[in-house]
């Protein structure tokens, strides 16, 4: 699942388009819509030294007109490929990634 943060003052829709291009090279999008909102509060724990954090993620459903995948250049993206449900569920996912996989394959 490509993703990332919004820049200061950036609309989430614009962040979607920017992150898709940065992380995958995808620019030819037919349409997109908000599919779900992820919300989780992380309280202080022994393995977390900072203040509590409230993470909110906007997950989009995107329909591509055309695409050629490419990995992010000099960035933080680990992989850039299409996966089956089985392959996606075998990845070491964070909570937002698992949320996205469950959203993509809800009846599993």
Can I get a quick summary?
Helices cover 26% and strands 24% of the residues. It is α+β, with helices and mostly antiparallel strands and 108 residues long.
Structure description:
With 108 residues, the chain is of the alpha+beta class. It has a single domain, classed as Nucleoside Triphosphate Pyrophosphohydrolase. 26% of the residues lie in helices and 24% in strands. The protein has 3 helices and 2 strands. The mean pLDDT is 87.
Unreliably modeled segments: none
CATH superfamily: Nucleoside Triphosphate Pyrophosphohydrolase
Mean pLDDT value? 87
User: In percent, how helical is the residue content?
Assistant: 25-40%
Count of strand segments: 2
CATH architectural label: Alpha-Beta Complex
- Name of the CATH class: Alpha Beta
Structural class from helices and strands? alpha+beta
List the helices and strands and how they pair.
Layout: H1 12-24, E1 29-42, E2 53-64, H2 85-89, H3 95-104
Antiparallel strand pairs: 1-2
Short descriptors:
3 helices, 108 residues, 24% strand, 26% helix
